[in-house]
Amino acid sequence: MVALYGTPGTGSLGMLGEQDMDEALERAAALAADYQPFSEEPVIPAFEIISTVATSSPGPTGDYTSYVDRDRLAEWVEAAGKAGTYVVLDLQPGTQDFTTQAQAFEELLRHPHVGLALDPEWRLQPGQQHMEQIGQVSAAEVNQTTAWLAELVAEHGLPEKLVILHQFQARMIPDRQDVEARDGLVLMVHADGNGSAEQKQETWRSLKKDLPSGMRLGWKNFIDEDSPIFTPERTMTEVSPQPWFVSYQ
What we know:
- By secondary structure, the chain is of the alpha/beta class.
- The protein has one domain (2-248): TIM Barrel (Alpha-Beta Barrel), CATH 3.20.20.
- Helix content is 31%, strand content 21%.
- The protein has an 8-stranded parallel β-barrel with strand order 1-2-4-5-6-7-8-9, surrounded by 4 helices.
- α1 (21-35) links the parallel β1 (2-6) and β2.
- The longest helix is centred in the middle third of the chain and has 18 residues, at 139-156.
- The two termini are 15 Å apart.
- The model has no long low-confidence stretch (mean pLDDT 96).
């Protein structure tokens, strides 16, 4: 999969929000086509939509997180499904837990083309604030969330769902070795490192070390922060093992 990352209508959070829905679908399809010559597998266009956004203030709930309008999300999910584009709902939960936030999107997660992403960078403990600390999540919380999602998949007879765990430091999931595989889910660690080519490769080497059996790897290309940004060819030929999911922010 090759994905545009971000939130509809908010260009500052990633490429997905830099254009309207129809143009985003066309852009994702074009990116996927750019990757196809370098993949033996069919390359599927995707959206990774930030569905809860980390906030600098506690907000009305006091949790340092804000939910994106559900009707807007549903519109993008439905249009993506018709276009053959996969959707991953990305969670930045603040001091809420991932399971609570995932369950709030149950209706959208019942769609066969919708998966889930957990971003520990934005998972705070009480008293913490975004941009002052890098968040982290325990394997127990990840397992609780994936157990719920796997049950949803089984209950509704859904195809396997992708579950992304974002990471650029080991401490973000300190007991990652205890994350459990689930029938009905495909788990993936997504390397969020940015910077120079060597910095990105060093993050990649660190994250793939002691990777739990069966867990796949994803890669992110940052338009503004990478220097230089990897081309599709470089992403697929210089990154080893070849990533299963590439997103653009």
